Write a sequence for this structure.
C-alpha cells in the first residue's frame, strides 16, 4: 500500500488540500493508496478561507510516507519543525510534491536547490527572489524532477496528482480517476499556465478536429491537415489552438500519441513496433525517444513495470 501524507501548514489553501484528498483518499482508491493529513500540531489548523481543518496526525506521519504532498499556504517561511520533517522524508527517499505555493515550503527546506520547479504565476517572482537557487519555470503546469515535483496554481494540482497516479499505476488508472473528478485526463506538465480552456469546447471547429485527429492517430498528420479539417488556414488554426489550449497542435497531438502508446503498452500484447505504428510515432526508435523523455524508461521496461513482469535482462537503448 502506497502511503500518501499531506502536510497542512497554517493558512492552508483548502482547495489545494482537497485535491490530494480526493485523488488518493477516497474509499475507491484504498486498494492503491493509504492517505493521511498531518500538521505540526494535531488539531485545528486555520485555512486561508477562514475555516479550521481538523488534522488528526502530527509530523511523525511523514516518517512512514512514500509520498509527501504540501498544499499551498500563505507563502511565508514554514516552521523549523516542518522544514526538518520534509528534509528527513527526502533524505530517506520519499517522493515530495507541492501544490501551488506549497513550493515555498519545499524551497525553504532546500529541496528545490538546483532543481527546476514551478508555482502559481502570481507568486513566481517572489519565489525567485527569495530562493535564487531554484531554476524557476513559471510558465508550466507542473515539473517532475524525479523525487521532487511541483505544480502551478490550484487546478494544476489535479494535473500533478493524476500524473502521480499515472506514474504509479498507468494511464488506465489515471483515466479512471480523472473521469471521477470530471477533469481533463491528461494535460502535459509543460503546457502553459495561461489558457482559456484545457481542451477545446465540444461542438464544431477545434473540438471536432481534435476528435478526428485522435481517430486518425496512425497517420502522419500535419498542422495543414488539421487546419483543413477545421476549415481554417494553417496560421489561423495554429493561433486559435494555442489560444484555447495553451499548447501547439503538434505538441498536443504528440502528447495524445504518447498517452495512447502508454495505454497499449500497459493493456495489450502488441509489439513495440506495432504500438509505434498504431499511434503514428512511426518507428520503435522514435517511440523509445519520446517515452524516455516523459518517463525515463524504455517501452519494454515500461510494459514490465505495469504488468509486474520480471525486468528484461537486456533492455533496448533509450536513445537512437
Amino acid at each position: 500500500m502506497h502511503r500518501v501524507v499531506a502536510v497542512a501548514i497554517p493558512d492552508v489553501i483548502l482547495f489545494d488540500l482537497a485535491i490530494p484528498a480526493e485523488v488518493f483518499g477516497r474509499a475507491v482508491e484504498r486498494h492503491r493508496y493509504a492517505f493521511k493529513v498531518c500538521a505540526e500540531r494535531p488539531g485545528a489548523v486555520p485555512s486561508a478561507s477562514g475555516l479550521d481543518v481538523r488534522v488528526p496526525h502530527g509530523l511523525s506521519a511523514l516518517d512512514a510516507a512514500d509520498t509527501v504532498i504540501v498544499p499551498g499556504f500563505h507563502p511565508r517561511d514554514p516552521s523549523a519543525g516542518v522544514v526538518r520533517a520534509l528534509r528527513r522524508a527526502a533524505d530517506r527517499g520519499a517522493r515530495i510534491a507541492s501544490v501551488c505555493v506549497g513550493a515555498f515550503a519545499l524551497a525553504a527546506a532546500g529541496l528545490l536547490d538546483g532543481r527546476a520547479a514551478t508555482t502559481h504565476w502570481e507568486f513566481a517572482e517572489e519565489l525567485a527572489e527569495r530562493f535564487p537557487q531554484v531554476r524557476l519555470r513559471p510558465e508550466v503546469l507542473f515539473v517532475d524532477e524525479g523525487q521532487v515535483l511541483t505544480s502551478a496554481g490550484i487546478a494544476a494540482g489535479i494535473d500533478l496528482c493524476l500524473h502521480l497516479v499515472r506514474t504509479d499505476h498507468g494511464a488506465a488508472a489515471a483515466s479512471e480517476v480523472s473521469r471521477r473528478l470530471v477533469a481533463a485526463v491528461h494535460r502535459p506538465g509543460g503546457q502553459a499556465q495561461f489558457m482559456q480552456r484545457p481542451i477545446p469546447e465540444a461542438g464544431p471547429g477545434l473540438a471536432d478536429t481534435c476528435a478526428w485527429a485522435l481517430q486518425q492517430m496512425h497517420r502522419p498528420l500535419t498542422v495543414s491537415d488539421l487546419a483543413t479539417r477545421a476549415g481554417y488556414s494553417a496560421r489561423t488554426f495554429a493561433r486559435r489552438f494555442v489560444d484555447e489550449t495553451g499548447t501547439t497542435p503538434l505538441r498536443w497531438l504528440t502528447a495524445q500519441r504518447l498517452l495512447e502508446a502508454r495505454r497499449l503498452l500497459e493493456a495489450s500484447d502488441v509489439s513495440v513496433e506495432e504500438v509505434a505504428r498504431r499511434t503514428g510515432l512511426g518507428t520503435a526508435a522514435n517511440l523509445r525517444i519520446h517515452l524516455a523523455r516523459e518517463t525515463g524508461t524504455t517501452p519494454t521496461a515500461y510494459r514490465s513495470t505495469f504488468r509486474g513482469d520480471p525486468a528484461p535482462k537486456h533492455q533496448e537503448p533509450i536513445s537512437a
In short: Residues 219 and 280 are 5 Å apart (CA to CA). The chain has 13 helices and ten strands. The first helix runs from residue 14 to 24. Residues 251-307 form a domain with the Arc Repressor Mutant, subunit A fold (CATH 1.10.10.60).
